[in-house]
Amino acid sequence: MTALRKNPVALTPDAAPFAIRAERASDVVAREALLDACFGANRHARTCQRLRDGRAPAEGLALSAVAWGRLVGTVRLWHVGAGGKPALMLGPLAVDSSCRKLGVGAALMDHALEVARQRGHGAVILLGDAPYYSRFGFSPLKTGELSLPGPFERDRLLGLELRDNALDDAWGMIVPTGAVELETKANKAPRARKTVRLVSSAA
């Protein structure tokens, strides 16, 4: 098992002007605007979106970073089967460019992984840049025999074991296994458009 970073999972108000909390229904419009700006208008056509369509995020693992009264970061994790092994798929992770020097992305990652570990999850998988995510313990060592339901770059499929041997012998297609999302009025809210530049992201 790869050890998680020993960084604090939540920064104090004196350390940085942002806080991490559970995602709320009132975050939907701002979250969608942030994701549109970070990933573009075609983000719903991306391969990893096939694992999220119509599904609810894993319980307790939809997180928002807020600062100055607005949403500045978001991350969600989703239940998947990784070649028959239960796991979580992380993404999307996105951060407002105004917070690039505050460590919002790293804090969201640390917090999400700690919550996942505390909730007893065994492994997390994501599609992202290895140089960025290796600092959190992610690597391609146990994802080489796994596939996604669409085109993807093999060297960007990374895994992290939260429990020893959780991804041993994992092979085959990664498939969604999470609960079906109940559509609410908040989920149907129109997306607000605003200019936000990408800082760090997982598809």
TrEMBL record:
Residues 18-163 form the N-acetyltransferase domain. Pfam families: Acetyltransf_1. One of its GO terms (molecular function) is acyltransferase activity, transferring groups other than amino-acyl groups. It comes from Bradyrhizobium canariense. This is Predicted N-acetyltransferase YhbS. InterPro entries: Acyl_CoA_acyltransferase (IPR016181), GNAT_dom (IPR000182). Keywords: Transferase.
